[in-house]
Structure formats: structure tokens, C-alpha cells
Amino acid sequence: MPNEEQLSILKQGVEVWNKWRDSNESVKIDLSGADLSEKDLTGVDFRDARLTRVDFRETNLEKARLALANLSRATLIGASLKQAVLKESRLTHTILMKA
Question: Can you give the pTM of this predicted structure?
Fold first, then answer.
């Protein structure tokens, strides 16, 4: 289950999320199991986040910072990952069709 407080902040938009992340760098991000399909998350900061089983279908993740993120069992069917940073991210059993 995703951390509801963190999910609520993300729902306020990427700009709000990224500012919150900058102010709370030591907080562990856990959005496991969240439905983030068909969202515009351009430039989102998900560095070192737990994103297991997250549904990112048709989500815009262009320029997203996903370094060190755990994307195990996430679904990224049709997601846009142009210029996304995936350095050392975990992609075990991740579905990347048409991404």
C-alpha cells in the first residue's frame, strides 16, 4: 500500500511534490501499489523511491528522476520515459511494453 500522505502530496502536482522532496530528502518514499496511470509526471523526483507494483500505464515520465528507485513488478505499458534517469533502478519483473 502506498503511503497516503505522500500520495496526497503527489496528487497536488509535480512542482509541489518536487519542492516537498527537496525539503524532506531524508524521508523514504513508498508509493507501492499506487495507481499512477495516465498521469503527467514530467520531471518528477522519484529518486530512491519504493515504486513496487505501481501502475504507470500511459504515464508521462519524461525527464523523471528514477535513479535507485525500486520499480519491481511495476507496469509501464505505453509510458513515456524520454530522458528519464533510470541509473541503478531495480526493474525486476517490470513490464515495459511500448514504453
Answer: 0.93
**Cell numbers that stand for 51 in this block:** 515504486
DSSP per-residue codes, 15-59: HHHHHHHHH-TTSPPB-TT-B-TT-B-TT-B-TT-B-TT-B-TT-
Please choose, from the candidates 31, 38, 45, the residue with its C-alpha nearest in 3D space to the C-alpha of residue 78: 38
pLDDT in tens, 3-12: 999 999 999 9
∠ Cα 3 4 8 (to 5°) = 120
pLDDT confidence of residue 99: 85
Cell reading at 18:
518536487
Long-range contacts of 88-93 (CB under 8 A, 24+ apart): none
**Longest CA pairwise span in the chain (Å):** 35
- What residue spans of the chain are helical by DSSP H? 4-10, 14-23
As a whole number, mean pLDDT of residues 16-27 equals 96
